[in-house]
């Protein structure tokens, strides 16, 4: 190989090529995602199915948060919508990537990728891009079902949607990073679902997704407050629920500042864990 060829070789892994390969990986990962029936049901459609079940099952109980005279309040579907959006974000990132990467490590996919020129960053761009694309589609479907199947009134002011945007971006980034981090926990690909899914399901029950958070014992609220799902749910409730519902939150306010801090702390912690524990098959630039 000539000197010119040797000096040109590193350009293969330059920022432009890395981004192009990452974009192609996003398309590839997204196609694979939608070809997996179990993933579609337990990750993509699961929040939509649960919103439908809870809305239909409890609609006979009347509105949530009604006044003493029976007026006001919101429908069961409107009450469950924020929690289902938050749960969908967690499922798209933590559960999806945690199981997926653990399986790829176990079945030799990572080893095979290590023998290709694919940069590490392109691989992670593909994974995180797929999470972003599928979660946006999932939330869009949730909003459509809530609006047109159950008549939920969505926010009309820009401030609410701005809050939604930053809570979503922080939430999905945190969930994706944590999914990569916990992918090291399962010892084999076959055990990945058994190791990762049960804790995620428990978190949904104690973080205000299926049960009203204020009705949980104080000690259980404190436990849930350690984890990011509680804060994602609180941020989404600030977007989709009337201001009067803030009184039942911890401290009596939506406390969006605490939501941002909690998610940022988890994001940084997840990045640190990924850096310390994730091992690519080879080193590259």
Walk me through what this model shows.
With 285 residues, this protein is mainly α. It has one domain (3-58, 73-277). It contains twelve helices and no strands. The chain has helices spanning 3-8, 15-34, 37-44, 46-58, 76-106, 109-114, 120-150, 158-182, 192-206, 218-224, 228-240, 256-277. Helix 5 (76-106) runs antiparallel to helix 7 (120-150). It is elongated, with a radius of gyration of 21 Å. The two termini are 20 Å apart. Residues 1-11 have low confidence and may be disordered.
| C-alpha termini separation | 20 Å
Q: What is the number of beta strands?
A: 0
> Shape, please?
elongated
User: Into which percentage range does the β-strand content fall?
Assistant: under 5%
Q: Number of helix segments?
A: 12
Largest sheet: none
Helix content: 55-70%
- Would you identify the regions where 5 or more consecutive residues have pLDDT less than 50? 1-11
Mean pLDDT figure: 88
Q: What structural category characterises the helix and strand content?
A: mainly alpha
Tally of individual domains: 1
Using only C-alpha atoms, the radius of gyration works out to 21 Å
Name the helix and strand elements from N-terminus to C-terminus, one letter apiece: HHHHHHHHHHHH
């Amino acid at each position: 190989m000539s000197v010119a060829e040797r000096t040109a070789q590193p350009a293969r892994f330059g920022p432009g090529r890395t981004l192009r390969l990452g974009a192609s990986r996003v398309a590839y990962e997204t196609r694979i995602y939608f070809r997996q029936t179990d993933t579609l049901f337990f990750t993509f459609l699961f929040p939509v199915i649960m919103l439908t079940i809870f809305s239909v099952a409890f609609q006979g109980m009347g509105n949530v948060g009604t006044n003493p005279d029976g007026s006001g309040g919101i429908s069961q579907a409107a009450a469950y919508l924020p929690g289902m959006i938050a749960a969908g974000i967690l499922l798209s990132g933590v559960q999806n990537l945690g199981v997926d990467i653990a399986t790829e490590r176990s079945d030799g996919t990572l080893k095979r990728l290590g023998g290709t020129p694919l940069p590490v960053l392109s691989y992670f761009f593909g994974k995180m891009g797929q999470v972003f694309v599928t979660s946006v589609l999932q939330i869009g479907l949730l909003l459509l079902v809530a609006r047109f199947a159950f008549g939920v009134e969505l926010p009309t002011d820009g401030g609410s949607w701005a809050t939604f945007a930053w809570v979503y971006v922080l939430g999905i980034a945190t969930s994706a990073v944590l999914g990569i981090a916990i992918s090291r926990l399962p010892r084999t690909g076959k055990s990945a679902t058994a190791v990762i899914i049960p804790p995620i399901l428990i978190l949904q029950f104690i973080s205000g997704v299926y049960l009203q958070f204020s009705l949980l014992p104080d000690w259980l609220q404190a436990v849930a407050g350690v984890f990011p799902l509680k804060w994602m749910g609180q941020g989404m409730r600030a977007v989709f629920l009337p201001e009067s519902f803030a009184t039942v939150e911890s401290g009596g306010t939506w406390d969006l500042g605490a939501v941002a801090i909690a998610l940022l702390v988890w994001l940084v912690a997840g990045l640190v864990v990924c850096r310390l524990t994730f091992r690519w098959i080879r080193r590259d630039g």
